[in-house]
Write a structure and sequence with these properties.
2 domains, 6-stranded mixed β-sheet, 6 helices, 5-stranded mixed β-sheet, single chain, Collagenase (Catalytic Domain)
Length: about 400
């Protein structure tokens, strides 16, 4: 991998937009895919899922280690996953702006399941009837041995070096097995169990747990899980690749979920020619100001502009860049499609990669960079404490 150049940030200041924005109603693009809101499961756009419509909200997750007669769990599992539990709670608190909090109930010991480990085999993530068989075998045993009162989501921990689950196994409240089999003490809305691939370097349990619970919240998957060609947006969005470099939640999905205050979203009028200058506060910064610019380009599309910086959740890559992310939203696309696509200069070559996953280019715009999206040109005037941008339409 080529070494990434260091980014120089400037000591700049936030300023108010040179043009007034228009009401947010015009920027709440309605999803029109054959998935998402029509089925009531997962959403790529507005309206969002009613099952998570009100905030603040507190979710209780359980960490349940399960082992087998022919593969016992390790004694230090709590220490091993302590940071993952903390990061899961911190991540949801940060990206939601404190609107959603995660609390944990943790089993002190491994719960032994009957039979042998091979009886719980799941060939790959999303495989049926493997997923149903796993849940219907595991849940009754766990329910009888652990107090699930108040628990809404279970994150199962499998013993290290297991071979029965290679990718993962999970389910959600809108799928049949969660409706047919549940706890006698609480209504479990989702569960997840990370497989062998999550023992690779630079993978994390927390980002897997956050990704899967994101689906329960109602977020569509950005791109196909097994696409041969991967848009760089996959590595910029935790709901694409949870092992990507940034492991962040896009401004668009925060907007759709109601996790950005109205004053943090700037809805840009798209009539006529104009030149506008706007300051954008980095998504994960606590400073007041605009965090997302939305430019409707039709009834089913928009240009999205946000500011990114590496955070404690990012893959530990030296000189991982920050800058302006320009993307587009296509309301005709939903779950398992690229409803969000990164827009960046064509000369950018793939150069960023975690230990696992695909290589993506640096798609972020830095001081002096520009990108043309249809009739709109976005230029970064200055990148530092905030990102100052110029938007022109001819």
């Amino acid at each position: 991998m080529p070494k990434l150049p260091a980014i120089t940030y400037e000591n700049n200041q936030y300023f108010e937009p040179k043009m007034p924005g228009v009401p947010l109603t015009g920027c709440k693009i309605q999803e029109n895919s054959d998935q998402g809101s029509r089925r009531g499961d997962l959403a790529s756009g507005f309206p969002f899922m009613p099952r998570f419509a009100s905030y603040p909200k507190n979710i209780t997750m359980a960490l349940i280690p399960i082992d087998f007669a022919d593969l016992e769990g390790d004694t230090n599992f709590k220490t091993r996953v302590k940071q993952d539990m903390e990061y899961t709670s911190d991540w949801f608190s940060d990206v939601s702006g404190g609107r959603l909090s995660i609390e944990w109930k943790v089993s002190d010991n491994w719960i032994r399941l009957p039979g042998l480990i091979k009886d719980y085999f799941v060939e790959y993530s999303g495989k049926y009837p493997d997923t149903t068989n796993f849940w219907t075998k595991v849940l009754p045993i766990v329910d009888s041995k652990f107090d699930l009162t108040g628990v809404e989501t279970i994150n199962f921990l499998l013993p290290p070096n297991q071979k029965i689950v290679y990718e993962s196994v999970q389910s959600f409240s809108f799928l049949s097995e969660m409706k047919q089999v549940n706890s006698t003490k609480s209504k479990i809305i989702s569960f997840a169990a990370a497989g062998e691939v999550f023992e690779a370097p630079s993978t994390n349990l927390w980002s897997y747990w956050a990704h899967e619970f994101g689906h329960e919240i109602g977020w569509a998957h950005v791109g196909g899980s097994r696409d041969a060609e991967v848009d760089p947006m996959n590595g910029l969005e935790l709901m694409g690749n949870q092992n990507g470099p940034y492991r962040d939640l896009s401004g668009w999905l925060r907007f759709v979920t109601g996790w950005l205050a109205d004053e943090q979203v700037y809805c840009h009028e798209n009539k006529g020619s104009f030149t506008n200058e706007i300051s954008i506060v980095p998504l994960n910064d606590s400073k007041q100001g605009i965090k997302l610019v939305v430019i409707p380009t039709g009834t089913e599309s928009a240009i999205l502009i946000e500011s990114r910086r590496p955070s404690k959740y990012s893959c530990p890559i030296e000189n991982l860049p920050g800058g302006v992310l320009v993307s587009t939203y296509d309301a005709k696309l939903g779950n398992q499609a690229y409803f969000l696509k990164a827009q960046y200069p064509s000369e950018r070559q793939p150069s960023i990669r975690c230990e696992v996953g695909v290589v993506i280019p640096d798609v972020l715009l830095h001081t002096g960079d520009s990108v043309q999206v249809g009739a709109y040109k976005v230029t970064v005037i200055s990148s530092g404490n905030v990102d100052q941008i110029r938007i022109t339409k001819n």
